[in-house]
Amino acid sequence: MDILVEPRILQDIGLTDGEARVYLALLALGESKTGPLAKEARVSSSKVYKILDRLMVKGLTGFVTKGKTKYFSAVDPQRLREFVARQEQELERRRTVVERLIPELETAQNLARKPDAVVYDGFKATTNFFRSLLEELGNGDEYRVLGGNYGTTQGLRPFFQNYHRQRAAKGIKVRMLANHGVLGNIESTTLQQAEVRYLPERFVSSMQVTFYGSKAFITFWTRSPTGFLINDPEAVSSFGSYFDALWLMGEK
């Protein structure tokens, strides 16, 4: 008997292509041994047993043994309703599991994204960051500075004069958007191995952001300077976008 149902229709309710072909072949053949079944279903003989096992687990086939030979048959097509109902129950179970897991997964995601932040307090601590930068970066590397300034921090000018001399000697490049207030009054060594532009006057602040790689060091050059080191690529990317926009506005 020819079965006019396309295998892809049974695939829509959760059967694989092979399972659909074998099930339809059994409906057409009635009881069958694996040889004729594989031929009718157009699947390899080596795969037909595995497919039959899966169909039996799904409650869609059975077999009888005659002598030493197994004869397989499809169950009543009405049982497909039960198969779909079991799928719906399994889907509901999975939906419940997912709803329970989502808050836990979101918590794990937020913890993974939480930036690694370190506070630097005082002149020695904040300037130590720049000393470590000289050790971390090498010839040809570049970092960027947003809001370069000397603020009201005592001793900062001579520190940066010496620091930039060492930086340039190592071949480390810097692109700096300095505060407008240091225009014409910037330490000369800053300009070595550097591109410097100046922010409009309305952007004047004691805050400076130095960033490269996945690190952003936010410094407030006050009488008692404080710095915050954030190790977070997303934060650095945000500073980079802001820097690029302001760079176009910067005065050379």
Provide the fold topology.
Elements lengths: L6 H5 L5 H13 L4 H8 L3 H13 L3 E6 L2 E6 L4 H35 L2 E6 L1 H14 L5 E7 L7 H14 L3 E6 L15 E5 L8 E6 L2 E6 L5 E6 L1 H15 L5
Parallel strand pairs: 4-5, 5-6
Antiparallel strand pairs: 1-2, 3-9, 4-7, 7-8, 8-9
Q: What are the salient characteristics of this protein?
A:
about 250 residues, alpha+beta, Arc Repressor Mutant, subunit A, Endonuclease, Chain A, seven-stranded mixed beta sheet, two-stranded antiparallel sheet, 8 helices, rod-shaped
Summarize the structure.
This protein has helices at 7-11, 17-29, 34-41, 45-57, 79-113, 123-136, 156-169, 233-247, and strands at 61-66, 69-74, 116-121, 142-148, 173-178, 194-198, 207-212, 215-220, 226-231. It is α+β, with helices and mostly antiparallel strands. The protein folds into 2 domains: 7-81, Orthogonal Bundle (Arc Repressor Mutant, subunit A); 116-247, Endonuclease, Chain A (2-Layer Sandwich), CATH 3.30.870.10.
What can you tell me about this protein's structure?
Helix 2 (17-29) crosses helix 3. The chain folds into two domains: 7-81, Winged helix-like DNA-binding domain superfamily/Winged helix DNA-binding domain (Arc Repressor Mutant, subunit A); 116-247, Endonuclease Chain A (Endonuclease, Chain A). The strands form two sheets. Strands 3-9-8-7-4-5-6 form a seven-stranded mixed beta sheet. Strands 1-2 form a two-stranded antiparallel ribbon. It contains eight helices and nine strands. The chain is rod-shaped and about 100 Å long. Strand 1 and strand 2 (69-74) form a beta hairpin. The protein is of the alpha+beta class.
